[in-house]
Amino acid sequence: MNVSNRWVRIGLLISGALVLLGVSRPSGLDDVVDLRHWSYPDYTRVVVELDGPVRDGPVRHLSADPAAKRPERLYVDLEGVWVGRRFSDGIPVGDGLLQDVRMGQNTLENARLVIEIEDYERHRSFSLTHPDRLVIDVYGERAGGETLSWPEKGSASKAPGRLPTEMRPVQTVVIDPGHGGRDPGAIGVGGLREKDVTLRLAKVLEKRLRDRGFNVVTTRDDDRSLSLEERTAIAESVRGDLFVSLHANASKRKSLGGIETYYLDQDYERHSLTVAARENGIDRDSVNALQRTVARFRVSETSTHSRQMAELVHGELVEGLNEGKWTVRDLGVKKGPFYVLFLSDTPAILVEAGFLTNKRDAGRLRNTKYLQVLATEIADGLSRYRDSKPRIAARGER
Description:
Layout: H1 3-21, E1 30-39, E2 43-50, E3 60-62, E4 72-79, E5 81-82, E6 91-92, E7 98-107, E8 110-117, E9 122-128, E10 133-139, E11 172-177, H2 194-211, E12 215-218, H3 228-237, E13 242-249, E14 259-263, H4 270-280, H5 284-294, H6 300-323, E15 330-335, H7 339-342, E16 348-355, H8 359-365, H9 368-388
Parallel strand pairs: 1-5, 11-12, 11-13, 13-16, 14-15
Antiparallel strand pairs: 1-2, 2-10, 3-4, 4-8, 6-7, 7-8, 9-10, 14-16
């Protein structure tokens, strides 16, 4: 048994001993709110939600120990966290990549997360706020399923098991109507709610895209709450080629109106912080922290394609609306650190369809005909983006 394996076993023994001895919980520790997982085509995601800031050490990898009948594992210690015996029995996964996930009290003031693996290629980890959570993605070859692999050395910006973005044919669009359920989003003139506007727009856009030959998946088709992980899980599970998040804006300046379109980038404009804070449900200072998190990821490849898509969609929106009776103020294409855009390696944009707090915009966003025009122009922009991509011959085609 190597040294790392020995220390993990010692930690687990300590965890069991603490539980058996009924050691009381020290004061001042954070709690584990939930432990959950999602299985994507290319990887499995494990999320630990806490009721306080994530203070995690490095995620360590351990080789299998056949003599001790222990599988390959990842583990990480969470400082200042109390989990007790809630997840000590583990949560079975059994998706061909992970066996199970469990947590225990490694010391009186640290909890340990252990992920037992069937096959391992690579992992990534990061933390999010509001709510506070640690996210670990594990990549490998899924036993009994499709072959998954991490890109060869030198091409790390490519998504595991998928063509690079510039070569990927556009087939499936994921539409994400912002907010929903307990989260109404912005509330504007006459009590108009963002979650209602985005859902109505999404339903029309879905039809317009299907008419143009796209496969379409929506993250929600009714008034229900969705977490960031759930929205991402839907997008990843269907292998979406494009991701379009629909929102409506708000401002203390009731005179401010117009349309703006965002894409994710490691840089941002000052105005973007206010919009991102509202749509992310956090304050501006936390957006700065998010920006540092975003910078840890390989967003450079998809950012170029997201910008191209944003420019084409926004151009169609402004031109199409201004050619008709719906003249709009062009607020431009901007970069912004939005949670919903950066957990996928799919080109993604966020459309702010107007200001609910502006009387004219709000009146239009209530109007079915206006929403139909919005949907048509967004669909036309996505079609132009699809047509700008090189065509990939189908297997067996000459």
